[in-house]
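Interim report to the steering committee. The following record documents the input for Bifunctional uridylyltransferase/uridylyl-removing enzyme (931 residues).
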Amino acid sequence: MTDTRRRRADHPFKELFDLEALRVELTALAETVVTSTTSGREIELRGQLARRLKLAYQQGHATAERWLMEEGSGRRCAERLSRLQDEIIQLVHELVVRFLYPSDNPSTSERMAIIAVGGYGRGLMAPGSDTDILFLLPYKQTAWGESVAEAMLYVLWDMGLKVGHATRSVDECIRQARADMTIRTGILEARLLLGERALFEELATRFDTEIVQGTAAEFVAAKLTEREDRLKRGGQSRYVVEPNVKDGKGGLRDLHTLFWIAKYVYRVHETRQLVAKGVFNDEEARLFRRCEDFLWSVRCHLHFVAGKAEERLSFDLQREMAERLGYVSHPGMRDVERFMKHYFLVAKDVGDLTAIVSAALEERHDKPVPRLNRMIARLRRSPRRTFKESADFIVDNDRINVADASAFGRDPVNLIRIFHLAGKHGLAFHPDAMRLATRSLKLIDTRVREHAEANRLFLEILCSRDSAEIVLRRMNETGVLGRFVPEFGRVVAMMQFNMYHSYTVDEHLIRSIGVLTRIEKGDRPDFGLANELMQQIKNRQLLYVATFLHDIAKGRPEDHSIAGARVARKLCPRFGLSPSDTDTVAWLIEQHLTMSTIAQSRDLSDRKTIENFAAVVQSLERMRLLEILTTADIAAVGPGVWNNWKSQLLRTLYYETEPVVTGGFSESNRTQRVARAQSEFRAALPDWDAAARDAYLGRHYPSYWLQTDRDQQIAHARFILEAEAAGRALATTTKTDPARGITELTVFAPDHPKLLAVIAGACASAGAHIVDAQISTTTDGRALDTISLTRAFELDDDELRRADRIAGAIEKALAGDIRLPEVVARKLTKRPRAFTVEPEVTLNNSWSNKHTVVEVSGLDRPGLLYGLTQTLSRLNLNIASAHVATFGERAVDVFYVTDLMGAKIMGAARHSAIRRALLAVLDADDEANAA
């Protein structure tokens, strides 16, 4: 350590600014103001103090940021910023009582204690943290105390600080702390800044005797309930890819909650004191400090980067955060992904610490014993009993626990067996057992991984019909899962730096298993065909194994599907699968994206699409398995990703391909499925005249009835009927879809080659961002296009008003009242991008018998679809069908095109020209360059 760094370590606050020099400067300034003869001297003094102190405060922050970059200690930075705040407040008080409200011989009523409470009371502050102050006054007060407090607050507010304050007597503090748990928590962390120590000590003593004593259980229950409510608001998983550093699961607030509880229950003031109380061992106390320091580093950097109190690690900040924190890229993992993996591992450690404190509280009976997991079937049990399967475990108050501390050492397979027994008997886990399991991870070596019984037990856990997701998640949280399956351990806490996946890789895989069990139970009708096919498959085990392993090779330099198949060929025999089942699992993993890609980005009415897919799946059983795996994979990506439209597309692809792979046999051929869909449509609209209904059925091609779900068919029918009854050749309608976070806008208009380009341009001109599009044409030459737009407003009323404005823009554009290129060029501006996506353009004549298929993939942005369709039109290409999809930040748009004569696009030179033109659109900084 250099001499300079050693001095900073010894005196971490002294060098933020020269306190004595500033005091001398401000004293001279105050003397000049108060001795002047001008009126309004108080306001003048407050203003000058605020301006000079604000400059000192900014300089102090700049110094703290520089030292944070040099040293990397987040806790030290938070301590320095808190001390900086202390010194500012002390200076303000000193100058206010000396020059504005002096009291040379103060009475007992003219005394006060200024106390830091809440987070500020902890002595730790982020750059954007609020400053919470309590002005503690005697029971008998004079106007002096109120005046001093008011003058100080005006100076602090004029500095631009966010100050929360209260002015109370000790009696008022005790009364309010008794009634309000938030105030109680704030006083729990009270710290005297300056003033009457006797007042502060009176508050501390009375708080301890009148509030704390005898109320530990009440406080613990309130804090844990508060935590649960907070996590419900933010999402229960700690593995969301844009986590909230302060309030998210595994974040700083969880550590604060632990320490509040520890301080209240055990009456300690520092983490290391919990070791003497038997709550933590030395290693766990060090882990607490490491987690705290890391999270404070992230939070302080985050505030400095954002220039405000930003608590969410959003994608647009993560890359810069990774660079500031010193992460570098490795093969298969970018710097930002390595940073976020570290973040999630720390969040997991915070969860472990939470479990440890919970167990200690239960031993003291300060925390109620949790009830059985509501997701597991309940059985009547005695409070304490043993298992016939193993004497190494007991049931302790409805939770599985070890019989003694050597249970895992005697037989390391018990590290798997404990989870198997918990799932089999529907038991929750005792924290002591989980703590011991985490400490025993080194016992899981090659012998345990290759042990036949261990693998049999694991396979039964994985394929459980009831508890697989719950038990696998607990195995993951303890570290047992990653240790037993090292390939899974490589993806633990691994984030994917994209907007498509909402969870880390390990969390996504576990959630996929949870979706699969719900498919098997059939309790989610929206999973559609997968529910039906699950009852027909021959071997459910290999489907569970494939689902568990499908993303196991993420983060490697090569394609994760191919690498994952190779991993499966190694692991499946270990799990006890036969060679033929191993081949099937490897195939499923290698092809796990194929069905989703084809369903969402290919023309399913094109015979060549179906033939190509049939050549991949080759058998009906494999296609069944792939459809179920695809459903589970999509549904586990994140909230709102699975929807009826995707379900319908997968159903259509499956049934279109079925007769090809069975040699003509199909349980439901195309004609029958169209007839059934039309019959269901008729039954849903009994109020329609039969003749009108039959005429309407004839207006849609068979593909429409197969690729559109019934609810949307009915909505389309009513919309078209209303439009034609009103004599409108052009009509629009809108609706919100809160589950997917989108707004749907449907356009009914005369079809023409540039229709999609006009709709896309009108949306871009209105600032709307297209993420999906369902495009169909009627037999009488009308287009029925449904466009999915990202939502802009939280309230439906606001969003629908916005959607109506966009619909109006589309109608004006189609009527020729708007010159789109100019409007779009003005509307779209350059924006910083959090992501980079390598642009790709593929032209293929073998994917369709009649059309050239143009697949465009690149970074999504407002106006992209308009730029692409405009370019295709300018190249004299006729768009026969378009398939628009967005996967987070990646847009994948597929166009089936011909030349103006209706023929495929031939010739390498022509293909190259189209590719260059479309790549120019993908590379454009803004739509003005693309138009």
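The longest strand covers residues 878-887. The committee is asked to note this result when reviewing the revised timeline.
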